[in-house]
Amino acid sequence: MKTTIRDFQSNDATAFLDIVRELQVFELELYDRMMTPDQIGQWYIDELLNQCRVEDGSILVAIRDGQLIGYATIFKKVEQKGELDEVPFTYAFISHIAILPVARGTGAGKLLLSECEKRAIEAGRKWLRIAVLAKNTIAREIYQNIGFHDHHITMEKPLF
Fold this sequence. Notes:
Layout: E1 3-7, H1 13-30, H2 42-54, E2 57-64, E3 67-80, E4 89-99, H3 108-122, E5 128-130, H4 137-145
Parallel strand pairs: 4-5
Antiparallel strand pairs: 1-2, 2-3, 3-4
Domain N-acetyltransferase: 3-160
Protein name: GNAT family N-acetyltransferase
Pfam families: Acetyltransf_1
């Protein structure tokens, strides 16, 4: 059972949205401002594809035994305008990654991350970023184990 990584195709939409909705269920337990799974539809894919056009990105899918088991999005040209004391720069950004629960531990996520890194390097980027919810300790540990480290931490305090 070999996992392959390829670019998203329009006929992947149904399986892709199923995985996005599965991720929403999980993330709603960690963060109460996520949309509910039933709010995710074709518009989500359209927005990702539009962002891919703007920021030189790709939606990648992981296929195992003919089934879509995961995905990642990589944007290779994210321009950081910089804070008042920071110079502008461009970096690559993995904005989404998810693997179906039944396929976790098979290496599919690492293959997706590796392909994202390869594409970022090919685009000439010096930095690759990924976002993760602070409470998602499992994902944070995985990312740290493959070389990611904390860069900028945003903290939040509920006011009521």
